[in-house]
Amino acid sequence: MKYLFIGLLSLALSLEAQAKLDQTHSKWDNILKEYTIKSENQVYFNYRDLKKKNGILKNYLKELEAVTDDQFNKFSRDQKLAFWINAYNAYTIQIVLDHYPLKSIKDISSGWFSSGPWKKEFITLLGRKMSLDDIEHNTIRKIFDEPRIHFAVNCASMGCPSLLQEAFTGEKLESQLEKATQNFLQNKTKNHIKNDTLYLSKIFKWYGDDFDKKHGGFKKFIIISLKIPEKDYSVHFNDYDWGLNELNKGK
Question: CA-based, 20 to 30 A from 67: which of 13, 85, 163, 168?
Fold first, then answer.
């Protein structure tokens, strides 16, 4: 009996060790490097080819799903935020693949009278069923005072900030968020300045208030980030392109 107990304890400890998350998110990192391509300022995703090898993405999602509350609570703040950003982006790719081919993520329904999959509870993390909206709005925006996440999470659409072509990690989070910010703000198809007017993505219309507390408003944030002259710019919000950010669109 003694040896049986020791054996079971060793097995439990071994399983616990195996379940620990790879904080480099290497599986997701490899997918982003292999199945994205950057053309000019836009990153496109190769859904067609990844769908043929969808087990690769599912293996990564299984790693996320294996993380327990106790393990997650031991993560640093930056590791937690990187976890949620990567989860949002990876599950977005997964639900597109589940319905591929399609022209827009908004073609996926969450239920009656809904457009888009954001309220669909198809995700299980930390033992809880959740939706993409739960991750973005009820977790990231609610817990983390970091408006730059709007340049990091990707809704699989041309109007979104492009996917960063690497996984977010706790170790590199600050530099990655800054890189994602610059990639988005300097993409002139989504944000540009003409005379005294800022022509901006509707992301700033929808989530502009998130910049108030930390940056004194989104206009001030943009002025500082782009190092442009400080003045009272007027704002025009550009049309938002919900077309799928698919590889062949960049050809």
Answer: 163
